Structure formats: C-alpha cells, structure tokens
Amino acid sequence: MKKIFYLTAIGLPLFLTSCSSDDADEGLGTLVDGETAFGVANDVFTADEWYPGGQLGTTTNKSYSDPVPAVNTLTNGTALFKHGEDFFEHLYTYSQEPRKGLGPAWVRSSCIHCHPSYGHGKRQDEYKANTIGNGYLLVVYHPTEAFTSDGVRYTTLSSPYISEVTGMPQTKAMTPFKAPIDENGIHISWPKVEKMPSGLPLHFSDGEPYELIYPVITIDQMAFNTNPQPTNYEVRLESTIGVYGTGLLDAISADDMKAQYAAEAPYVQLNPNMWDKEANDWAAGAWYTLADGTKAIKKFTYAMTRASLQDGAGANAIWNITNVTRSDRRYLYTTPAWAKAQAEDPEVISYIRQNGAEATSLLHPYYAETDAEIAAKVETLLGMNNAAKGGDNYTAAFGAPEMSDKDYYDFMVWHRGLAVPAARDLDDAAVKQGKRLFKQIGCEACHRPSWKTGADNYWVDNSIKAYAASIGKNANELLPRFPYQTIYPYTDMVQHRLFMENDIRTGWCRTTPLWGRGLSLRLTGAQDRLHDCRARNEVEAIMWHAYSKDSDAYQSALKFYNLTKEERDAVVKFLQSI
To answer: Are 467 and 405 in contact (CB under 8 A)?
Structure first.
C-alpha cells in the first residue's frame, strides 16, 4: 500500500510518498490505530529527527536516489531530475551523444562506478577502475612525516601531491595513449593491526574481539607513463561518499560554520590552514576562489578543498572524472609530464600516423605529415590543461564543448536535488538507548546532530548562468533550494585527526555525515566506513578512533570500549537507524 505522510511545518502542505512494496514502511515507526506513526516525537527523538533532510529534503523511501520534495517547486522538475540522473548512471563514450567526450585519459567512465547505488564506495582488494563499486581515488604525494606521542607515524599538511599525474590520478586512456598510471602496477594489501599504540587490547572487557585492518598501497615507478616519472612518493586511498544530501550541506551558511569552528577551537587543535586560533577567525586557506572570482568558505571533500557544490564535488567530478568538457571547462584534466611521455612514445606516434589521416578519425586532431609534427601536436593537445592552454585553443582543435549547458544544468538539478532517506526505528528502545549513549560518551562533539540551513542563496557557475540567459530565467531560481531547514547530518563540518595507521594524506579529515549510512548494506551490498573503507562495520570504525591516544576522538572511543555488549549494540543500532 502506498502511504502519504503530510508535512505541514513550513506552512504549505507538502508530501512524500513511500515505496509501494509490502515492507515499504518497515522501520518507519510503530502502528497506531492501523497507521504508521511516522514523524511522531517520543521521549528521546523529536518529530523532526525522522526527517534528517528537513521538510524539503527527505524521502520516506529506503533509497539514496530519490528526488527531494523541493524538486517539485521547479518547472518540469521531475523531468529535469530524471534527465540529470541519466548522466550519473550511464557510461560516457568517445563520440556518442549525449554522453560523449570521454578521454583522452580518465578516472572512471561513469559516476555510478564510484558511487554504487548512489552510496559510499566499497572496499577493494585490487585497483580496477572498471569495477562497479570501486570508489577509490589514488592519492599520490611527497610525504613529510611526524609522529604521535605513542609512535604513530603520520604525514603533515606539507605533503603535496606529485605533479606528474593529476590530483585524481587516471588509470584509463583511449588508444593509442598509455594511461598515466598502469593499473597492473598498483598493489593493495590489508594487514591486520597486531597491537594498538594506545594500549587498548583488541578485545572488549567482556571478551568480544574486534579486528582492525588498514590498506597498504604501492605503485611501481615503472607504472607511471609520464616523463619524468615521480620519485619519493607515497600512496593512500580515498573512497567516495554517498552523493545524497549534498545540496543540503551546501545550504549551511558560512556564518554558522564559523560559529562551530569558534566553539571547538578552545578544546581541540583545528587545521591551521582553516582556522587562525590566535585571531579566532578563518585562516587564509579556508577561502576558496570560485570560478568567477567570488570567495567562499571551503566545506566539501575530506580535505575541505571546495566551497560550493556548483564548483566542487559534483560540478568538478562530472568534468575531471570523465574528462568531458563543457562551456566553462574548455580544457583537459591532464599534466605536462603525461603529454610529454605520450609525445615521446614511438608506438603512439606510429598508431596516429596509420589511423589518424581521415577527418572522421578521433585521432585526426593529432595527425600530421611527419612523425616530428605528430609528436609536437600530441604534446600540445594532450597538455591543453587549464594551467597551459584551453579555451578557444581547445575549441579550435576539438570543436564545441562536449557537455551542453542544458545537460549540465539538468545534472546539477539531480545532484543538488538528491534526498536523504528518512530515519528508521526511532521509537525502538535500543535505538533510543543508543542515542543517549552516543551523546553521553561524547560522539556529538564532532558528529554534531543537527544544523539549520541558511537562506540558501547558492552560488551559480557560468555554465548555468549561460543556460539561464538562453531561456530568459533567473539562474538563482533554477536549482532546488533548502532555506531554513532543520537537518540532521551528524557532522560538525570540521576537520579532525584520528592518527590511524597509513592515515589520510595530511592527517586532517572532515567529519563524515552519518545520515543514511545505516542503509548502505541493504542498498549497496557493503557497509564499509571511514575515508578508505578500512572499517567493515560500525564497531571497527569507532575503534579506529582509539588507535592513538592523540586522536581527537580517543576519549569518546575509550568510553565506547568500556560499554557493555548490550550498550555497544545499542549505539550500533542507533547509527544504523539515522
């Protein structure tokens, strides 16, 4: 039976529909007079907490792929959302409309490769870009090291990416070019932690064991098809997070984020690139310059490198993951070192000479009368990145941008319009106990439960501005908006350090939102957690917080360690319900 849950808190009756399967309302609440009492407050949870994405951003379906109710405020919003979804779900190609332009090198050939069922990537034992569920991005950098008080080695903020490959390194390329990194030279292993530097045993006081594993990843130097090849480098893994709800995070105001930083600064060391403790204000590194020169505070990615969804996580990925150009990105995601290596490869030159003469050939832009001229063209065109060339030069060589402004706009309607799944089982006694314990042991200090969004006057990029102008519309009214919504992402939007073995580059990682993660096993087939999927369940994720006594969350994780089995299970059930 399909049920309708009416939401009237914002003045107008909006509604969300649940899926129509027999168990659609399973976990959404107890039955009262034969109807599901969804959204009803109890002694622990408010009525709002059933709606983690607020009244405008929640779906009652157990799904990561539903549109937010706010999509319905747009003209033809559902059709726009569905068309935008197509660009996420299907493969890009070299030349077939509407998803043409793949290459000449790329990270993945579709978005859903990295975000299975729109969720978090899955832990992998080998690096193969074509594996659905492999959400890993390779992080290759020059390390500068330091050590915690209990001897855990970690890298510091001054650990820059190598320059020979792109920041999100590519392992695929169109024939005849060699991928910047040969996947056969990438090696992943998962050793077990034998001893916790913090001194905690690998079992709880009641005898129940827990196991921690971590990734060791190496790349053979000869696997780099670049000139020069990198030296003195290390490799880490970062996995994708769920893409649902990112529009709601975009609506959190910089002023509210600043207040959160100021509240935490007296009690924990914050990333000095983000927060100037002495001035009690943003540091210079907290500001990101958007494409039109506007400055905004960084809030997206583990490393807090982007400030707006329209110039960040989604907008960036639809371009650089596939290397598909658009009107505001008329250049390639490449490096000079890769372009140089391809220009010097006799197999590349020979193949272009034999197959690029016809005007219809995809290799024709690289074709010339002599090998030397072909090599020069290869180095010039493959090196046509933002730092070097691009723009009109790219259009002259390759033609019009490959993704139209309209298609990109629809993609952003979809991306900004992905709903957060409703919370479940909030009237269950164990879930209520779990929430109480989550707060008592201090987890809410970083996993802040709720925020209230601001006016959500989102920044608009040039591509959407161009599309808006073509149809005579105001660009600031074309995307779903989430003004003044109470949301429950369970993140403080701040970076912290856990000092784990083979930790994230620089050690600083934004607190990951917890909303909806309890559905991951059901929706994606895996429940791996943390930035590199090293935690295979919630207990492992929590205990990684206690690996080192220098961890920002050590005391909270220690309190979890000292809970009874029943209490630990209650915390886990709570995490699976929100």
So the answer is: yes
CA torsion, points 74, 76, 82, 85, in degrees to nearest 10? -40
Cα–Cα distance for residue pair 338/342, rounded to 1 Å: 6
Collapse the DSSP code of 570 into the 3-class scheme (helix H, G, I; strand E, B; otherwise coil) and give the result.
helix
Tokens of 283: 């540091």
pLDDT tens digits, one per residue of 122-177: 999 999 999 999 999 999 999 999 999 999 999 999 999 999 999 999 999 999 99
Q: Please report, to the nearest 10 degrees, the dihedral formed by the alpha carbons of residues 437, 442, 447, 449 taken in order.
A: 60
Size of the chain, expressed as the number of residues it contains = 578
Which pLDDT tens digit goes with each residue over 172-214? 999 999 999 999 999 999 999 999 999 999 999 999 999 999 9
- The encoded tokens of residue 202 equal 């690998």
Six token digits for residue 559 = 């309190």
Examine residue 169 and say whether the peptide bond preceding it is cis (omega within 30 degrees of 0).
no
375 neighbors 349 (Cβ within 8 angstroms): yes
Pairing of strands 275-276, 295-297: unpaired
Helix pair 405-416, 462-471: axis angle to 10 deg:
110
Q: Angle 360-408-392 (CA atoms, 0-180°, nearest 5)?
A: 50
- The Cα–Cα gap between 551 and 196 comes to 12
Whether residue 201 is preceded by a cis peptide bond, meaning omega within 30 degrees of 0, is no
CB 329 within 8 A of CB 323: no
Burial class for 440, CB neighbours closer than 10 Å (0-12, 13-18, 19+): middle
How large is the C-alpha radius of gyration of the chain? 24
Query: To 10 degrees, what angle do helices 371-382 and 336-343 make?
Result: 160
Whole-Å CA distances, 467 to 19, 324, 332? 34, 18, 22
Residue carrying structure tokens 């001897």: 151
Query: What 8-state DSSP symbol labels residue 366?
Result: G
CA atoms of 210 and 200, how far apart (whole Å): 11
Tokens of 508: 């600083």
